[in-house]
């Protein structure tokens, strides 16, 4: 199965809608709003804080799981790690590991990284009521173009709120449960995400 370019772009749009606090045709007024009160000393014309890039996550003893040879870890496992790492990067602003798992040719990977880094640089944040992005059921695997592996996973996320910048008003978003498409290939003997998309 080879999703169209339109389907691949759709994930970027879907994720950006979530991070933008949009709910499609839903009524945002139905969602509870978190309260956020800026510091009394802050001024609209001045930045409320100076951005300090987060320290890159340190791998555990023995290294990250995705650094194992492709013969010791599956493409599916690495795709699941990518989702988990994206969720963590969204919370912390540290995209170093996400970059490491993605190839330089993955345009949407870079788009997600740029978006979350920009959010944190502006003093914004995303808060999920329960879990953030979590990979679920594997729905399809295609190895006919080996060593390239294509697969699909259901990915869910709970509702929450997004604050676009320091002092900004929280915007609610609803829960997601979509099917994501991944292409992975071995790079120097390790699986890397070459493409990611949303299956319509």
Number of domains: 1
Q: Round the Cα radius of gyration to an integer and report it.
A: 18 Å
Largest sheet strand order: 2-3-6-7
Helix content: 25-40%
Total count of helical runs of at least 4 residues: 4
Low-confidence spans: 4-14, 16-48
Say what the CATH topology is: Nuclear Transport Factor 2, Chain: A
Give the mean pLDDT: 81
Q: Note the run of SSEs as H and E.
A: HHHHEEEEEEE
Structural class: alpha+beta
Distance between the termini: 13 Å
The largest pleated sheet is described as:
4 strands, antiparallel
- Which of globular, elongated, flat, extended, rod-shaped describes the shape? globular
State the CATH class: Alpha Beta
Percentage beta strand: 25-35%
The CATH architecture: Roll
Q: Give the number of DSSP strands.
A: 7
Question: Care to describe what's here?
Answer:
- This protein has about 200 residues and is an alpha+beta fold.
- It has a single domain, classed as Nuclear Transport Factor 2, Chain: A (Roll).
- Helix content is about 25%, strand content about 25%.
- It is built from four helices and seven strands, in the order ααααβββββββ.
- It has helices at about 5-20, 75-90, 95-100, 105-120; strands at about 125-130, 135-140, 150-155, 160-165, 170-175, 175-185, 190-200.
- The strands form two sheets. A four-stranded antiparallel beta sheet has the order 2-3-6-7.
- It is globular, with a radius of gyration of 18 Å.
- The two termini are about 15 Å apart.
- The relative contact order is 0.24.
- Residues about 5-15 and about 15-50 have low confidence and may be disordered.
């Amino acid at each position: 199965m080879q999703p169209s370019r339109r389907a691949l772009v759709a994930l970027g749009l879907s994720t950006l809608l979530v991070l933008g606090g949009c709910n499609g045709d839903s009524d945002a007024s139905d969602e509870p709003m978190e309260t956020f009160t800026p510091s009394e000393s802050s001024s609209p014309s001045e930045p409320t804080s100076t951005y300090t890039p987060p320290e890159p996550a340190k791998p555990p003893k023995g290294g990250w799981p995705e650094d194992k040879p492709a013969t010791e870890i599956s493409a599916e496992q690495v795709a699941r790690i990518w989702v988990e790492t994206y969720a963590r990067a969204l919370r912390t602003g540290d995209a170093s590991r996400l970059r490491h798992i993605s190839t330089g040719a993955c345009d949407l990977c870079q788009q997600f990284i740029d978006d979350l880094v920009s959010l944190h640089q502006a003093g914004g944040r995303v808060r999920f009521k329960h879990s953030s992005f979590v990979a679920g059921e594997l729905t399809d695997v295609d190895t006919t173009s080996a060593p390239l592996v294509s697969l699909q996973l259901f990915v869910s996320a709970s509702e929450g709120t997004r604050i676009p910048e320091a002092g900004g008003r929280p915007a609610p978003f609803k829960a997601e449960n979509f099917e994501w498409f991944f292409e992975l290939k071995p790079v120097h003997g390790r699986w890397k995400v070459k493409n990611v998309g949303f299956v319509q």
